[in-house]
Amino acid sequence: MPLLFLWFFLTSTSLVSALQTLPCINTTYFIPNSTYDTNRRVILSLLPSNVTSHFGFFNGSIGQAPNRVYAVGMCLPGTEEESCIGCLLSASNTLLETCLTEENALIWIANRTICMIRYSDTSFVGSFELEPHREFLSIHGYKTNETEFNTVWSRLTQRMVQEASSSTDATWSGAKYYTADVAALPDSQTLYAMMQCTPDLSPAECNLCLTESVVNYQSCCLGRQGGSIVRLSCAFRAELYPFGGAFTVMTARPLSQPPPSLIKKDSGKFSTETIAAIVVPIIVVAIIFLVLLVLSRLFARRRKSYQEIDLDQSGITTLHFQQLDFKTIEVATENFAKTNKLGQGGFGEVYKGTLVNGTEVAVKRLSKTSEQGAQEFKNEVVLVAKLQHRNLVKLLGYCLEPEEKILVYEFVPNKSLDYFLFDPTKQGQLDWTKRYNIIGGITRGILYLHQDSRLTIIHRDLKASNILLDADMIPKIADFGMARISGIDQSVANTKRIAGTFGYMPPEYVIHGQFSMKSDVYSFGVLILEIICGKKNRSFYQADTKAENLVTYVWRLWTNGSPLELVDLTISENCQTEEVIRCIHIALLCVQEDPKDRPNLSTIMMMLTNSSLILSVPQPPGFFVPQNKERDSFLSSQFTMGCTSQTKNDVTITNLDPR
Is 461 known to be catalytic? Predict the structure, then answer.
């Protein structure tokens, strides 16, 4: 059985103080500063960004049992990103300040916006419990005609229960099971009300949860200024004043037909009308489900190339994903015209295309080196298509012919990060704020690939040219999952086929073919340094830098106490020096020689978002090249390998045979 929690709706800072003991459940406890405590702090710090990038609702976990922490975050639909993040940060801080040793807690916060956070040592997503519930009522009473008020009340709440339990918008999971409404009362008063269920409920469960909450409200709070009923899976609140931003553009709608009574006639029993209100929607939903099931099977037979993929963490219920024929791809790319070529990487060439419906896409024509069978290729493509995150490029479809394997991605208009970062005429468009936000976005994307997605994906070729920028300069990681799609085994720690870019690859990968999530961490560290300095790796092979690579150059600046000499001159006068130095510090921790000394992505995220967190002292990094007499012997020992194809620095390596 899932552990039970108490919810609360808050309206002001004073209420937060008055009710601060309510979020914590005194069931099981952890030791302060323990592994569980660290995991709790990490996942709470990650919730704001993940909730906003997953359409208002996100669930995830971090750590290994018995220190694994499960958490859910939610904002109401229509909430602006900054407001959502601010609300979730406030909720997280309240939990951290209040629940000092409890392993289970849940909090609702309601002010101008409303959000919820819940964490536990036990998985709870999808559970449905009506009890316990909690009642909060306003201290002031109101004067009005009781009979007229009850009539308005019943009609309004019945309408809201029906609307909330049927509002299953598939494009935004946070828009499910939510409604806000107003009604005119006697004596020129107005009744404001709001209902919300968590998106993991069924429509029938949401209906039942809200119906019970309305009944509870009638028992506790009628005759008061207002109040709230909160329980495990839903919340209901009504007031005589607009307590949320949703009411600023809302006017009272007419309440026509009187609904069935929601009041229990006998203790412990529902009225006939209430039972009907619960059963009828269930029957209707069941009929609709059966009709849709029959239609979907008929449709699937007619178009086998069309697939619907269920997603449980992306915030999207279904993903429309197509298998396209080669002729369609040829038409879209004008027969792979050179004028449409966007670039070329280790896995193949990329072209811009336009589908017949006008959608612009990026078409990756894979090189014919994969020994993977058609079915295996198709299976891996479908799996990778399930990865949905704001900071990942969307895979929209694929083409599979006897001699062709093609991937179709969303088209990202601002090209790749290196297009701006390494061009002296364009790098000024990336001020420090944009670069810092890009670092944060890449961090969230890799964290999703490593930990929060259905699959554990090691990118293996993380570099500036694989970071695309959308119209708002939000970074989107490209080429993720290519190891799976191309048939490179990611289940083993060693490989004879190295896919990566020299300069971004860590020592253990280049020399011994060993890879892990810490390989991506090393690449990310190099990428952070490039973002700060605005130069490619190979720029540091020039004689005037007195360094053989970027990592060596930065390490010498760090040990000499002059890290800010690394900063791109175009942003050096307008950057936040403390943020820059902290990012350099984090990057040096990422490029440590021993993979065990490199932080994981959840820790990196915490380092970026929590400036008060003390960072460890970095040691000499991997591929640090000593000066003078030691250099030749060092290079000989580090880079001796046999390889069939190898290029210098930033050219992708796709087929190496390490010692």
Answer: yes
